[in-house]
Batch of 3 targets.
Target 1
Amino acid sequence: MHIDDAQLEQRINDEVNATGKSVQLVIEELLSAALPTLEYPHLNPTEHGHIIADSLDLSNEQSANTTLFGQVTDSADYVSNLRKASWRR
């Protein structure tokens, strides 16, 4: 890694000398502390889920012969549209 700032380079070298750690380890620790981590809450699916095909009623014969997602001809396009719609919420 090349550092153009002489003061920053000196501060890193001082930290390396003070702790006895390698330059790489000191820089990794600094970057880990400075950069945000990708943490997200785990949601309970029973509380945050929803039924995709809630209009499907199996009480009559016509619905019983209907396949779920039978209207989908291009699955990649269908999934892409679902993702776009979910991000707009």
Note: The radius of gyration is 27 Å.
Target 2
Amino acid sequence: MSSVLFVVSAAQGWTLADGTVHPTGFWAEELAEPHRLFTEAGWDITIATPGAVKPTVDAGSLAPQATGGEERSAELEAYLASIDDRLASVVDLESVSATDHDVVFYPGGHAPMEDLAVDTTSGALLTTALDEGIPLGVLCHAPAALLAARRQDGSWPFAGYRMTSFTDEEERIGGLADKARWLVETELRGRGADFVGGAPFEPNVQQDRGLYTGQNPSSSVLLARTLIESAG
């Protein structure tokens, strides 16, 4: 049986450039669909957050206009309700090790831009996963967490890696680009990522060695299936 470590943001808000806080959390589809697919594959799942705080779902990710309709929203709500006990009993990110798992997975939502982007514990875990060849799946805004990774010499472990994330264009279409302190794509490119953006809101998964990244919520299923296939 394979085991997967979900690293989920504990943030409930995202601080904008003017100092106001935009309510956020994990994006429903990005946690629910991979969790469902990994469960169906028979994988053992551990969920960790900073401080063992129960993660919050972004209410906007359950709105019909975000999911494609009321039926889809209801499906996602029902799935999250079915695993609420798991979400309520997460472990502390400080207590987990990448090497105890076969896969490490980070779902997105704007929340990782608030905490995981500057979390040194998460950054060290990501670096270990990369160096140990543990498949690392990072979705949508979660590649912001890669920014916290550092080697002892101060270099960025992910420099030169082909990757994707929620794009600056998608952020503009969503209406939040001009309000943000920084944008994920811009920061990744600035650190030396080989960034590959696809069409807005269409599935796009990039793999480079052990790093698997998905662009947006619609990439959730494809990224999870790709990880399952890679694990054999």
Note: The two ends are 11 Å apart (CA to CA).
Target 3
Amino acid sequence: MNFNEKLIELRKSKGLSQDELGNALGVSRQTISKWELAQSYPDFQRLVLLSDYFGLSLDALVKDIDVQDVRSKNLSEKQLSSIYEDISSAKSTIKTVINIFCVIGVVGLTLAILAGIFWG
């Protein structure tokens, strides 16, 4: 069962309208409608509120959800590309910092050895 189908089933089992569920979660009726139509998905905070509201664990609430489908609905290609670019940039920066520390370590070790030879 997809998340949107699960949400519809849960909402109807409590006899709630989209407006009533939205009010309980602090979102609009339109937001609930988009979730139920699989046009968008709730953020983590709303998932926690949903799980609490329906008395389910997060695991039970999101079980069998296709993560790739959620990613494609919530993030545009431009947003995904930006995230991947940020990650690549961070990896590159970390590698550079590690290389600098390695060079500093080698220079320090070399100086310590030379100091030991000359003054030892």
Note: Residues 75-120 form one domain.
